[in-house]
Amino acid sequence: MAALPQSFYVPAEEEPHEMTLMQWPVDPYTYRTKRERTAIQTVIARIANAIAEFEPVIMLADASEHAAAGKILSGNVELWDIPTDDLWCRDSGPLFVINDAGDRAISHIAFNGWGRYRLPSDEQISARVAEYMGVPLYESGLVGEPGGAEADGRGLVMAHESSWINDNRNPGLSKAEVTDRLAAAYGADRVIWGPGVKGQDVTDAHIDGFARFTGGNRVLMQHDASAPDGPYNRATAILKDTLTAENMEVEVIPYAFDGRIDEVCYYVNYYVCNGAVIMSEFGDPGPDAIALDAVRRHYPGREVVTLNADMLIGLGGGIHCATQQVPAV
């Protein structure tokens, strides 16, 4: 595959979408019983149906799953015959790029199960979507996940080193080499790095659980109010200082914690679609209210829809992780 031409770039998530892609979870090693599969598929259907109130949604799934999926997906969700393993379309799905001439393509970042798992169908999704849609696929020379990078659509990308400069994804590549390839993959001019934290979670601290560009020079971040000296907070503080030095307006909100699953709950792992933001709520009234107010202020004019996402958090992700936008051209 050829390298991405310089005219292409990843637009900001809040720019208009043609549609949203999602993946139907069936992996037998993750969801070992019919009850587990039904539970997670119900959550994914709830998210898809919520987004479909605002823009078209495409659910990628093997044809053998279409009848069952169709029973719980709304009529605004279309099924494509593209086999999947798990639900994390932000990571294994295609990274779309556009140019000013109105062309669209896919910038291919090879997915290897976060350097930990073998998900053979998910590893092929970008290529299969490119073929299905008839769009070119350009090689980045990187292994990783788009959930590990955040683009402002104006030439800037931020990411955690732990998710990219890591032998489980890009062995033998220097920080400079990864930086150049990541910027090129996103059609960006610069990459702002935070340290992140290796090994604390399956993603090695994907940036979309910690910090998001919200338009202009604004960034919305999270911190763990219960453990100020914890590894995530130390890493987030360094990233905040770096962003502030870049003249970014940074707002920090607290995490919530769900006692049932004993996991950090990521409010900023929301999805921005046409006219709305789809975000998680966790049943903790104080942090829930703070996060909702912050998202409404950062995205004026958009409806904010809150959903229970506890099951995704227990699996190591959130609503943003389950989605991938197709930018309008």
Shape: globular
CATH class wording: Alpha Beta
Going by helix content, strand content and strand pairing, the class is alpha/beta
Order of helices and strands: EHEHEHEEHEEEHHEEEHEEEEEHEHE
Number of helices: 9
Mean of residue pLDDT? 94
CATH superfamily: L-arginine/glycine Amidinotransferase, Chain A
CATH topology descriptor: L-arginine/glycine Amidinotransferase, Chain A
Strand runs, count: 18
Quick structural summary:
With 329 residues, this protein is an alpha/beta fold. It has helices at 34-51, 66-70, 89-92, 125-133, 161-164, 175-186, 231-245, 285-298, 310-315; strands spanning 17-23, 57-61, 77-81, 95-98, 104-110, 137-143, 149-151, 156-160, 190-194, 211-213, 218-223, 249-254, 256-258, 263-265, 271-273, 276-281, 303-308, 324-327.
